[in-house]
């Protein structure tokens, strides 16, 4: 860990640290108030300062002089600016490093990629191997239940789609350093990946969106494979996977979409974040209504009601995202929803039995 900044600000101790997990952590009186992905030699943090509301810390690093140049703003007012001595080592990303150092960095990067691939394979193997009596019983019951409702072909497609979706959650949980307790396939309902409680709003968002993104990627892969081969099972898998992931992106808790929306909304103190997210939800509802997606309209309204009912006190529960992170995350959410709905629409006219399930679901 490297300490970039340590200063007294209006009776409060402000510390900026660079963690080994590629994050810059800002603490006010030893309480984490902001976490951002590091940007090598500069960065911005927004945090709440008593007496001023939301203020902004801008900083740039001078590795040669071992200084952190900083400025703290409240609107247009400069509260503090100056330099602080950096204690600890900064990673050598600048172009003046020696060839030997560059070689070492490349070697470490290659090893990291290899280790990451091995770790993912190991995780996949452990998930299968560690399926105890309860998990195995639930999985078997789920398969039998779906086969009874539909047929074995559809049941296998549902189980595969559920596993890919939940595996996306598991990967994100592991990347966030959370202990994963397992994947559970629940008969007639779906699946759940269980882990420790996330510590930040970004972790909440990342874990929530990882399932639909990875599951959506699996659906797209199945759709493309069906276009190339004409195999009906691939079309059913793609349709089932799209249905599962679109449903989970509905903006209502406890679905993934609702958790992602809450992570964004509660990153802003007071009511501003709620107003922004309600406006975005209104756009979603209006668009869904224009295309006749009745169920999306219904759940969109329920999600908005949930946001209103939860209040602003939730802001204090976890470390919030900054404005830039909130904007990017909101854009990603609506982009993923749009892509999956567009593919569902394209599949609806294929004539393959079951391929129109997502479109029928959305219009129901």
Point out poorly predicted stretches: 92-121, 123-139
- Percentage of residues in strands: 15-25%
Number of helices: 10
Measured between the Cα atoms of the first and last residue, the distance is: 53 Å
Major sheet description: 4 strands, antiparallel
List how many beta strands DSSP finds: 10
Strand order of the main beta sheet, please? 1-2-3-4
The general outline is: elongated
Q: How would you briefly describe this protein structure?
A:
This protein has 364 residues and is an alpha+beta fold. The chain has helices at 99-129, 133-149, 152-175, 201-229, 232-248, 256-265, 272-290, 294-310, 323-348, 357-363; strands at 2-9, 12-18, 23-28, 31-37, 42-49, 53-62, 67-74, 77-85, 180-186, 190-195.
